Structure prediction request, 1090 residues.
Amino acid sequence: MLQQISQLAEPIGMIIGFLLTIMVLSYIIGDNVLFRLAVHIFIGVATGYAAVMILYNVIWYQVLVPVLQLYTAGNSGNLSMYIIRVVPAVILGIWMLTKVSPRTARWGTPVLAFLTGVGAATVIAGAVRGTIFPQIGASINLLNRQSALAEGTNLVGWFINGLVILIGIVATLIYFQFGVRRPPEGVAAHRPVILDYVSTLGEGFIVVTLGVLFTGVYLAALAALVDRINYLWNVILSFI
Amino acid sequence: MKRILPITNTVIAVISGVFVILGYFFPGSFGGIQSVLIGWAIILAAFALLLGIFNLAWVHWKKVSSEGKGHVYSIVLLISMLIMIVVAGISGPTSALTLWIFNNFQVPVEAALLALLAVILVYAGVRLLSRRPKWNSILFLVTVLLVLLGAVPLYFLGTIGPLNAVHDWLTQVPAVAGARGLLLGVALGTVATGLRILIGSDRPYGG
Amino acid sequence: MTDIICPLCGRPNPPDREECKYCQAPLKTSGFAASPEGSDDLHELFSTSGENTEPEKPPEPGASDLEQAIPDWLKETEASFKGKFEGEPEEPIPDELSGKPDSLLSPPSESPRPAGSAIDDEWLASLLDEAGVNQPDQATPEQPEQGKPFEESPEEAAWQPQSPAEDQIEPEAPESTPKAEKPLPAEPAQKPEWLTKLEASSNIKLEGGIPPAEPEQEKFPHTEALEEEPEQQTPPEWLAKSMPEEAAEPEKETEKKVEGEIAPAELPGWLEAMRPSEDLTPTGPVEDVSSEDIVTAGPLVGLRGVISAHPSAIKARKPPTYSIKLRVTDEQKARVELMEELLADEEKPTPLPSPPVISSRYIFRLVVAAILLLPIFWMIITKSQSSSTPQPGNIPGVTDFTQQIQHLPAAAPVLVAFDYEAGFSAEMNPAISNMLTQLMRKSAYLTIVTTNPSGPALAESMIADVYSQQVGSRQSYPYYADLGYIPGGTLGLLGLATSPKSVLPYALSGYNVWAGKPLDTISAVKDFSAVIVITNDADTARIWIEQIGPQLQSSEKPLLFVSSAQAAPMILPYYQAFPSQVQGLVAGLAGGVAYGRSIGNIQQNGIWDAYSIAVTISILILLVGSVAGGIVKLLASNKKEKS
Prediction:
């Protein structure tokens, strides 16, 4: 019985996949009921799976299983660690549930403040250590001969490319600079003219970057389109 | 009380953030407390995600109970969520049944949605010049065409050397310059926003 | 002595007072005698002290209002003056009156006044002018030229009582007497102060200024009476006494005055225009109060038409009730209903016109989709495999990626992060499967983590599929541990970087993998041999690089990426940095296929030809469509400018 069910699972699954794919691709013709049904099924399945993952990975394995292990094993050493690492978090988590109701939402703000503070510190450190310092260093090393020798490329071409990248980085950063000095009364505030030109150059570099990004997105989507059509054809072939 | 609570919230945010940053600079002294705070934050993030999923279900439940417009879709959503929770909860998140539902429901729809994007993007690209015929639109379109020409070997023409060279130069020089500038700008903005939170001048948590 | 009636407030004042004791108006210049009974203002002001016993004659039919306002005694005076000059011999003036004071008399030149001569008194003349009284017997004297002192005309001189005439006093019209005898000032007649105040209080206003004396005989029928009166009236004693003393002076003073008089000013044109037309009759009072009772007490004594303050006058009665019902005609009702309908329609939301189901844009979109889909269908149906695959060296990062994995020791613990969405499976599956193949060949211990809730399911499916392909049967790869999902994004990665055991203590299978090999030697992420991140999102890649990258750099462990084509442009700066933060990169379907070639997996992906033709068709669509759209836009804008 189970074997029959498992044998039928694949074709049934293919039919379901086929139908759902058609329902979603029908949006090319226009918004319709089938498309909305397919999207709502997807949202339901995805959020249900996410909820299970959280319950398994966090609630079960990090909160409940250690308690059971402590109860069964009686290991007092881990108890202290558990009390320090898990119990306050669970209390804070339950405290955060006050955010559900608008009447009690105000009481859950300290928990969010804690999360915000920790998150802000984490991203600050990551941005400084992971992006700002290394990328500025990389920008400085664009015209570093050691890097050119390490790559083993043509020096002239390497130098020109490095120069272009350096100018592009500076111009891009200047494009995002919108502050001006306070002018005397009656005079309109305006950036220096040279900054306007450099900013336009930076805008050009950003446009090129966005063009490349757009191409990447389109290629990814095109691959998915080709794959879906291939899947549909395979399903049709499997039933013919 | 109304004044004490906001100050308390700010103090909590600042102190917790300071301890985490100190853990970066002095891992020996503050590494432990940093690890504890991060552990708490991870569990809290999980609770927050559960709260969000519960809120989604509650909203759709209210729609169904009030029989508002589109409540049929909400019924479908709630049923599929319930089935997935029950099946995955009982059999496990990586069980065969769970994976069967995942591979035959979630993956096809998600892939088809991305496939739909291809048609929409090419249509938007075609209409770009007719809507905004400016220099940056033209530059954008030219960049897209040049990158596409060198991205893959063309069906009728195969690999064309100059086109590949142009593609390589575009993606590795000006695009990298712009991307690096964007990354630096994002990082600087992130640092500025984070510092504002850590000094208490910005309170996104509603203190 | 009789009381003097104040010209302003109408109250009686003692005769010795110069100012009214109630309103402080000057009395001497007016010097009105109190009337025995209340009478109209004009009559009261012009009446003599107690001598005005003549009843008011009824107004002549057809007479103007001003004529009616002139009291009868004045008319009689005029008539007497006329009669006197017509035929009656002049009576000798008493001696006591020979020397008239200048204040009362105005001794003109000694030329006899001809009969019917003009009236000297300017005010009287002007008054009579306005009243339209004819003065047929009086010759109009020459109008005094502007700037020249007034020269008494022969008629005026004749009118002036010669020596006795000069002394004659006109007590009835005291204001007229001194002016009649005096040489008229050269300046244009100015309204006396009392007259101005009289105008202010009276209902009848004299229009314009009093013109210079133009003795028009037709207009002054009263001058005869006026002329006669001096003969009939005896001057008061005080006047008679003062006459001889000042007899000699007035002449000199008069002469001097004549010489020193201010020349009559030239009236400006607008003032001349304001001169009342002789044809116009002054308008009467707005409200005819002649029939109203005269107030006998209080500050408003003498006035007519005043609301009585007597309590009995105010009869408290219920105010009349008026119907609030509007009297609306049928036509008005119809208009009201129409208005209400219009207003009601304003509140109703007008339904938007439904867009046409089939429009040009819709058809264009279908055409674009068909042009894109049909070749793909054709390639897949025909299973074409003619297109060449990209070379690994042509795609940056592929070679480095391959080498990094090749340099891994056997059975090395490798952290693999499945952080991509299920929808990108088609694009990334070739690269993932090739990577897993390469790792499985090395028996690398795969530690699966993910910051995406759907990651574990994707990982399980991929590992099972790849391993099944390798071994030829559906089996599970033995050397891997699926640690599951890390919530918190950045926070979770920091926790993973510093203490992965506390963050993920158990695998999804429920086993404590950290207790056994090879993960027992792992205390931090830097202890892994390599970290491979599979992601489709640039932000996820950046977070991994920022949180995990510094840890790995310190231990010189490679951080490798398998990414979608959409995230590759944002990972390249990290890959191209010196020192590099990303040691290997396989991006997109092309990268995956190239990577497969690099590890010897030359198995053609069935979708590569379709993918290739789709890209080619897309280029053509973009090129042709953009150019055509640009041309159409240009033509349309030119048309707009021309129109």
